[in-house]
Amino acid sequence: MATVADALALQTVKYTNVAAVGLLVFDYCITFGDEVRWTLRRSWGVPAVMFILSRYAPFIGAPMTAYYGVKSQIFYPELTQCTTFNDISNGAHFIGIIGSEGLMLLRTYIFWGCSRKFLAVMLPFSLVAIIVAVVVDTQPISFGTPRVSQSCILEGPRASTLPYGVLLLYELVLMALTIFKRYRKYQNLHSSAVKALYRDGVLYMICITLISIANIVVIAALPMAYSELLNTPQIVIHSVLASRILFNLQDATENRRQETNHFSLSSPYFDLPSGIEGVNV
To answer: Which UniProt keyword terms apply here (predicted)?
Structure first.
C-alpha cells in the first residue's frame, strides 16, 4: 500500500517529467530556424538520420512518459494497456538516445580526422553497448530488492541503473578519446571549427555524464517512487545538446574560409569520407 511519502514522490516525478516536455518544446521553438538553415542544403546521409532520430523521437517518448505518469492507474483499466503504452514510450526513448549518441560518436570521429581505425574500434564497441543496454533493460537483473508492483504506476526497478551505467561508460570513453586527441594533436591550433568541435563535444558529454550519474544515484539510493524522476529529462537533454552540437558547428564552419590560419576543416586532417554527406556542415 502506498504511503503519503510515496504519493508525494510520485507527484514530484510527474511534475519533473512534464516540465522536461515543456523544455523540449521551448528549445525546439528557439532552434527551429537553425534546424531549417541546417537542413535546407543537406542530402540524406548518416548525420541526417541520426539528427532526425535525436531531434524527433523525444517528441514521442517524452510526452508519452509524462502522460503515463499523470494518467497512471486512471487511464488504463487493464494492465496490458499500460504495459504496451510504456513499452512504446521506452522504445522512443531508446531511439532518441541512440540518435544522440550516434551524433556524438560522429563528432568524435570527425575530431579524430575521420580515422578508419577509430571506426573499426568504436562501431563494434557502440553496437555492444547498445545490445547490453537493451538486454539489461528488458531483462532486468534482480538485486534482491522488491520488484515494482505490476500496477500502472510511473515507477521502475533498481535494475534500471544498469542501462544508465552502460550509457555512462560509453560517454566516458568518448570524452576520454576527445580530450586525448585534443591535447595530443590539436593543442597549438586555433581554428574556430576545431574549438567548436572540442568545446561543444566535451560540454555535451559532461552534461550527459552528470545526468547519467544523477539517474544512477536516484534509482539506486532514493525510494523507488523516485526511480523515474529523471527519465524524461535524460532524453530531453540528449536531444537538446546533440542538436546544438550540429548548429554551433555549422556557425563555426561558415567562418572557416575567412581564417588565415593554416588549419581548417578542409585540411587533410578533416577530409570527409564519401557517404557521410551531412558531416560537411
So the answer is: Membrane, Transmembrane, Transmembrane helix
Integer angstrom CA distances of residue 113 from 155, 204, 255: 43, 20, 20
H-helix or E-strand spanning residue 220 = helix 192-221
- The whole-chain average pLDDT of the chain stands at 77
Give the start-to-end residue ranges of the domains of the chain.
Answer: 4-141+150-253
What are the start-end ranges of the E strands in the chain? none
For residue 74, name the pLDDT band (cuts at 50, 70, 90): very low
| Count of residues in the chain | 281
Residue 20: pLDDT band with limits 50, 70, 90: very high
Distance, in Å, from the CA atom of 213 to the CA atom of 239, rounded to the nearest integer, reads: 18
Distance CA 123, CA 192 (A): 28
Between CA 44 and CA 84 the distance in angstroms is 32
**CATH, range 4-141+150-253:** 1.20.1070
